[in-house]
Write a structure and sequence with these properties.
By secondary structure, the protein is of the alpha+beta class. Helix content is 19%, strand content 31%. It folds into two domains: 107 residues, Peptide Deformylase; 46 residues, no CATH class. The protein contains three helices and six strands; from the N terminus they run H-E-E-E-H-E-E-H-E. The strands form two sheets. Strands 1-2-3 form a three-stranded antiparallel sheet. It has a three-stranded antiparallel sheet with strand order 5-4-6. It is elongated, with a radius of gyration of 20 Å. The structure holds zinc ion. Zinc ion (ZN) binds next to helix 2. The site of zinc ion has 5 residues, from helix 2.
């Protein structure tokens, strides 16, 4: 399969960023991009042109290396602001976080995944020994869908891929 998949990766949402990002070019073409390595995660609010008007909190790797056929060197993306001498620069931090999340977002598209596959879902907090009553209303999610139903109904829907989002 190597060498067969050639796709242009567009950092679509870069348009939101002005100045140096646009000067550097708003698109990056990768062939055969892959995550070579990654550590840790960070939460990020994401949108997607495929889901107009929708924004969700995702979990992305804080640091990624991307190897691509058409780039000699390995590309690095990270949320960290290395310019410590200049002090913390919020705009730069956000820009780097945005770039790091975007790269993962776009590579996911190539693999048929969307931001909903990376949604940060917090486990429902439960007091020890506390049981969810069968008639307790719970918020459940499946992909981009969510609904509030009674827990006893959720028990039957769990096998269809619904997960508990909130009690
Ligand atoms: Zn997208």
């Amino acid at each position: 399969m190597a060498g067969e998949k050639k796709m242009a990766m567009t950092i679509e949402d870069y348009r939101r960023f002005k100045s140096e990002i646009i000067d550097a070019g708003i698109t990056m073409d990768f062939m055969l991009p892959e995550f070579a390595d990654s550590i840790n995660k960070f939460a990020f609010m994401e949108g997607c042109l495929s889901f107009p008007g929708q924004t969700i909190k995702t979990q992305r790797h804080k640091w990624v290396k991307v190897k691509a056929d058409n780039h000699k060197s390995t590309l690095y993306f990270s949320v960290w602001n290395d310019d410590s001498e200049e002090g913390y620069d919020k705009d730069k931090y956000l820009m780097m976080a945005y770039e790091t999340a975007c790269v993962q977002h776009e590579i996911d598209h190539l693999d048929g995944k969307t931001m909903y596959d990376r949604q940060l879902v917090l486990s429902p907090w439960k007091r020890e020994n506390e049981k969810i009553g069968r008639n307790t209303k719970v918020l459940i999610k499946k992909g981009s869908e969510s609904k509030t139903i009674k827990y006893k109904k959720f028990e039957q829907m769990e096998k269809d891929g619904w997960t508990l989002a909130e009690v």
